[in-house]
Amino acid sequence: MTTTEIPTASRTRQDAAVKKPPRRRREGAAWVFLSPWVLGASVLTLLPMAVSLYLSFTDYDLFNPPQWVGLRNYTQMFTEDPRYWRSVVATLTYVVIAVPLQLGLALIVALALKSMRRGKGFYRSAFYAPSLLGASMSIALVWRAVFNDGGTVDNLLGTGGWVNQPGWALFAVALLTVWQFGAPMVIFLAGLQQIPSELYEAAAVDGASRWRQFLSITVPMLSPVIFFNLVLQTIQAFQVFTPAFAVSAGKGGPADSTLFYTLYLYDRGFVASHMGYASAMAWTLLLAIGAVTAVLFRTSRSWVFYASDTDGGA
């Protein structure tokens, strides 16, 4: 190595060090770009959650300063409020009915669309449209008119208005949710398109029927997508509000049959002005949803199949 090569190499390293920004400067730039999200999450999510948690231990009516009462809201909720337990039962019944029916219909339609050769894009958009419209108050009011006395269902079946019968009102609300199967349908369709067609061809050569192919190939290969839709739709079902509010005119009737949890929470917080009690209900709902989600993840180990499982076993 000559004497002229040493300062040249040293100068190259110095130039690279000058061109590379310091680590603190890079971290500072990252925080600048993250600041809108951090600010939004702090002001719009974390701070309201902290205030809500504090209010759940107080007696607060929206007009006077909150008064600390400790666990009184929670004890009253679990031991002294029969309407609270009726709202829990109505919500659980709704979740058990609406979620399986919605996912089952979504999977059936996705299977039908997968086998179509023409018009798949049109039908996919048409079936997805209710998912965009169904959460609006206007559609819920139309649904109420359809299932009301003298409505379409009453004229066709002669059973009277479902929304006015305690035994049928909840099913009317559940059907509105089932009608909004477009979002899980699109996810199912995307998952079905990822299943290799060679698996079906090999099963057909072995003499497997379509039902056997569905049970042995489609369901295991689609199980991660089924699990994803199940978790997502279950969480959404526990938070349903607009359909029940519109169908029951905000009362949860008839006979509290559509008194869903969020509807009763709204009644306690904004109608009766018991915001501390409503905050306690909100945190209980959060913990309940977290527990149900944890159970679903725990049980998924026995029925959800991932491609990496076979790779690891090999």
UniProtKB/TrEMBL annotation:
GO terms for cellular component: plasma membrane. The chain crosses the membrane at residues 29-55, 92-113, 125-147, 167-192, 213-232, 275-297. Residues 1-22 are annotated as: Disordered. The keyword RNA-binding does not apply. It is found in: Cell membrane. Gene3D superfamilies: MetI-like. PROSITE patterns: ABC_TM1. InterPro entries: ABC_transporter_permease, MetI-like, MetI-like_sf. Residues 1-11 have a biased composition (Polar residues). GO terms for biological process: transmembrane transport. This is Sugar ABC transporter permease. It comes from Streptomyces sporangiiformans.
